[in-house]
Amino acid sequence: MALPAFSFATTADEVAEALASEIQGKNVLITGTSLNGIGFEAARVLARHANLVIITGHDADRLKLAEDAILRDVPSANIRPLLLDLSSLDAVRKAAGEVNVYPEPLDVLIHNAAAPHCAFKLTVDGLETQMATDHIGPFLLTKLLAPKLLASAAAAVAASVSPSFNFVPRVVFVSSQGHTYGTGVDLSALVRPNAEKYRSFDAYFQAKSANALSAIALSRRSGGRINAYSLHPGAIYTNMYTKKESLPDMQAFGGFRAGIQVLLAQLTRRAGILGPNGEPTDNFKWKTIPQGAATILVAAFDPRLNDKPGAYLVNCNEANEERAPHSSDPAVAEDLWRVTEEIIGEQFAF
C-alpha cells in the first residue's frame, strides 16, 4: 500500500498511523521528553505502537510527570524512564551502561534534548553547556549505544519480524533551520570555550550545525549499518521558551514575547523564508507541538528514507537543499567527528 504524502500540517499521530507497521515491535530511545515539548509528543505517539519507548531527562520529577502522562493516555504502553544528563560525560556513560544491560535491542535512537539558550557556562568537563548538551553528549551516547543498535538488525532477522525484518537501525538528530544563520562549528571553541567570544544564539546555531554534520558522518562511517538523519522540526512554541535560563536572552531583545517576535523577524528577512509577496513560507510559520513532532517520526521510521542516509528533513520531507553548505560538507563533518572523538577521549569504531 502506498504511503500518504506528508507536509507542514501533518501531525505525529497521522505519521504514526501511516507508519504503524514500521513502528510495531520496535524499541526506541528518545531524549528530552519533558511535558509540552516535541520529544514528549513523539514518545506519547510512539507508545501506542512501539514495543518499548525509553524516555529520558535529567530531572527525576519531570521525567516521572512525563511517564505518568503517557501512561494515562496509553495505559498499555511499555515506557521505561532513564535519568540522563547530557551535559556530563560521566552521566552519559552511566546512562548508556544501564541501557546496554536492557534485554531488548535498540532500533532507533532519537536525539531531541537541547540545552536552553543561556549565559556562558562550563560543564563539569570544562565544555560549553549548549555544545556539550546538544552535540558532545549525544555523540558519546551514540558511540556507546552503537553495538546495541547494530544488534537490533541481527535480532530482527533472526526473529523474521514482519514486515520490515531488514530494518536498518536509525539515529535521528533534531537540528534546526537556525543552523543556516550561523557560520558553522568553530572547532577551536569546541575544544577551548571562550567566554569573550560567546553568544548564546550563535552557540545554538553551531550546535544545530553539529547535529546535521553528525548525521552525515555517522551514516557514512557505519557503512550502511546505521542510517542517520537530521531535521528541522519547525518554529514551535514549546517549554524551551519558558525555561528560566533562556529568559535573559529573550529579555535582551526587549521582553519575553517581544523577544521571540524580534528574533523571528530577523530570521524571516533571510533569503528563502519569505514568499514572493512577502508572506512567511511554511518554513517559518508557527507549528503546533503535534505538527513539530511529525518530522521526528518520519526521520525515525519512514521507509522512503531507506536509501537516503544522512538526509536533512523539513516538513516531513527530504530537503537537503535547505541545509547550509557549512552543515552539509562531508569533509567538515569528518573534522567535527575527529575533534569530538578527541574531546570524549574515545574512538567511535564499528
UniProtKB/TrEMBL annotation:
Is Transcription regulation among this UniProt entry's keywords? no
Q: Mind telling me which SUPFAM superfamilies this protein's record contains?
A: NAD(P)-binding Rossmann-fold domains
Name a GO molecular-function annotation: oxidoreductase activity
Oxidoreductase among keywords: yes
Could you tell me the keywords of this UniProt record? Oxidoreductase
Q: Which InterPro entries does this one have? A: NAD(P)-bd_dom_sf (IPR036291), SDR_fam (IPR002347)
Give the family per the record: Belongs to the short-chain dehydrogenases/reductases (SDR) family.
Tell me the protein's name.
Uncharacterized protein
| Species of origin | Mycena belliarum
